[in-house]
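Incident log entry.

Two folding requests arrived from the same account within the same minute. Monitoring flagged them as a possible duplicate submission, but the sequences differ. Recording both here for audit purposes.

Request one:
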Amino acid sequence: MSRAQAVDILRLCSTPNGLLASGGRLGHHQVWARDSMITLLGARFAEDEKIQASLRAGIEVLSRSRTGNGEIPNNVDSATLKPNFRAYADAGLWWVIGSSLIAPDPDVTSSVLHWYECQDVDHSGLISMQESADWQDLFCTRGKGLYLNCLYVLALRAAGRHSEASRVAEKVNQYFWYQGDGNMLRHISHTFSTESQGAQDSLGRKRWLPVKHSLADEQYYLSWLGFRAVGEWFDSLGNLLAILSGVADESRADKILNFIRRHDMASTPIRSITPVIQPGDPDWRDYYGMLNLPHCYHNGGVWPFIGGFYVAALVKCGKLQDAAEALARLTELNRAGGFNEWHHGETLAPMGVEAQAWSAGMYLFACECVHRSEVPEGFFGIGGCGNTL
């Protein structure tokens, strides 16, 4: 598997209206905001005018399809140009990040970020989402998502709004970081409706607090925060974005990477979550059907594009040998699956569709990081863990 083969996949996905999520006969033939902008991170280094023109076209098509209040669509149909807004939560943030790299538009960016300001519905400093509204669009992530708020930090920085980004990062650390001590009060206290933030309400009544059932002795960022409830599983992409955005300082970044190593998450090269959600668990949903079975899809499946973020996080933290080894595993996975959408979390069998754009784009990004021995300047921040733009 070579960089040239990844470029071939991106050419296959390139159209005059933007980059399709996948380029095979069977696949996702829409211009998805998150997919195309994540792909852009690595695709921008491809010296191919067809790809570059498609990336710029996708930015323009998504921008034209936004609503009057600044909401960027989840995807746009490549044939009819009809926008879809169902899994809306992260689309605009990725658009801000991607456009800042190759086609900045300050006016549209301001409009998009204003829409996100309105998603801070309880004035906690963090943005909220409906269930299954981000990239995990068939999963129970809801409320204040870790991935979503780390992405918000990156988008604010991409727009040059560094003081706002720092405030959001501070809130992520305040509310999401679980210290391995069983204390759940700090993670839900912002949902209390009275002025008292302690274990007793303003009338002196003892509050009900959730009990940590999973990963109780670990330290990591929780996957989501809801009304007096939290997502207990380890969300790989969210925790990696915490490192890459600089939300996580050096100490927290080391704990995250050690967690991944100790739980053998990256031998695959990295599973999306651990532990997986089982039928009967509070976060199991009947709508998971046959797609989100344990070790499948969002529920512990292996996504090559997340493997690219893992390589980048290792490089950012100066673990260059580990990054090279992770890149080798990612190379083999993409070779076996033809830059597939995702793989089974235990057997590594290729699942989903082949010729997935963000699998190819993030492979190029991972290669670039390892080649330079640093994360390319202009995104994620520069220098070691904890340093940001």
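Request two (distinct sequence, not a duplicate):
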Amino acid sequence: MAVIGNIDPWADQFPQDQILQVIQLVCDSWLTFSMPAERLEIPITQKLCAHLRTNRDRSVQWFRIDYETSVLDAEGEITGRIDLTFTQGFDENVYFSLECKRLRVRSHKRFDTLANKYVTHGMFRYFTGQYAKGLNRGGMLAYVMDGETEAAIEDVTKSIEKNKLALYMASDDTLCVSSLSSREVRETWHQYGSDSRFVIYHIFLPAQSTRN
């Protein structure tokens, strides 16, 4: 099997060291990200994708970054659309995905944690055949709109606790500090997939800390 540098272009899983590079790129880029005037998920993610491409260090971050990637099954039917996809190598089915959601959205009339939507319209998609089929890792990217990341983590934890069965989680599993050792990152473990071990990395980004 051919290897270019440290890249195996025919690997059947996205490499763990490059997942760490993805997370570092996202967290570092967020520090210099200018929030768009329209503070909605789509314009934020579009602008962030462009910012990530600009900031990528191609000497160590050996991946392509794409926005709104369609996932096709063997018959060519679209099974899902991934917000941000990171790929390397020759196999289009091997990638690391980030599903993006807003959390803790305030307006002059109401406040919504959106934690349940984060779980049921985000995390669930990894277990319904829409995303990451045959893969063992995926990601969630949360824009915490009021900047209260710890509160957002608590909100999501509560929603995860209510949906453990659908998330293929053991009774004693929960949202925990990530083994990748970043304060912005948590992870969940799921008894799902070919090896009954699927990991979701959760990145919580405080929108209030971004540049105006």
